Amino acid sequence: NDVVVEQNENAPLIPIAAVESRNGKSFVRVKRGDRYETRQVKLGARDNIRIAVAEGVREGEEVALD
């Protein structure tokens, strides 16, 4: 299940469910062609459903929902 990244003010918004936390760092899986690459991201403000990504993904990219 993929979602397209939306833009909010200066930071792209992604579903919180797309974020994976390991060792205090946050990661998302971004679609690249027919596969996914894991990228570390820097997160910003959040609500109950979505979280802003300060660094790591751009608007229009697709992230995997686990």
What can you tell me about this protein's structure?
It is a single chain. This protein is mainly β. The chain is built from no helices and 8 strands. The protein has strands at residues 2-4, 6-8, 11-15, 20-22, 25-32, 35-46, 50-55, 62-64. The strands form 2 sheets. It has a 6-stranded antiparallel sheet, with no helix packed on it. Strand 5 and strand 6 form a beta hairpin. The N and C termini lie close together (8 Å). The model has no long low-confidence stretch (mean pLDDT 92).
Descriptors:
66 residues; mainly beta; six-stranded antiparallel sheet; 0% helix
Give the helix/strand layout.
Layout: E1 2-4, E2 6-8, E3 11-15, E4 20-22, E5 25-32, E6 35-46, E7 50-55, E8 62-64
Antiparallel strand pairs: 1-8, 2-3, 3-7, 4-5, 5-6, 6-7
Give a brief rundown of this model.
The protein is mainly β.
Q: Give the overall silhouette.
A: globular
Return residue spans where pLDDT drops below 50 for at least 5 consecutive residues.
none
Strand line-up in the sheet with most strands: 2-3-7-6-5-4
Category from helices, strands and their pairing: mainly beta
Cα(first) to Cα(last) distance is: 8 Å
Q: Give the overall pLDDT as a whole number.
A: 92
Along the chain, the helix and strand elements come as EEEEEEEE
How many helices?
Answer: 0
How many strands in all? Answer: 8
Strand content: over 45%
> What is the helix fraction of residues, given as a range?
under 10%
Q: What composes the largest sheet?
A: 6 strands, antiparallel
Gyration radius (Cα, Å) is: 11 Å
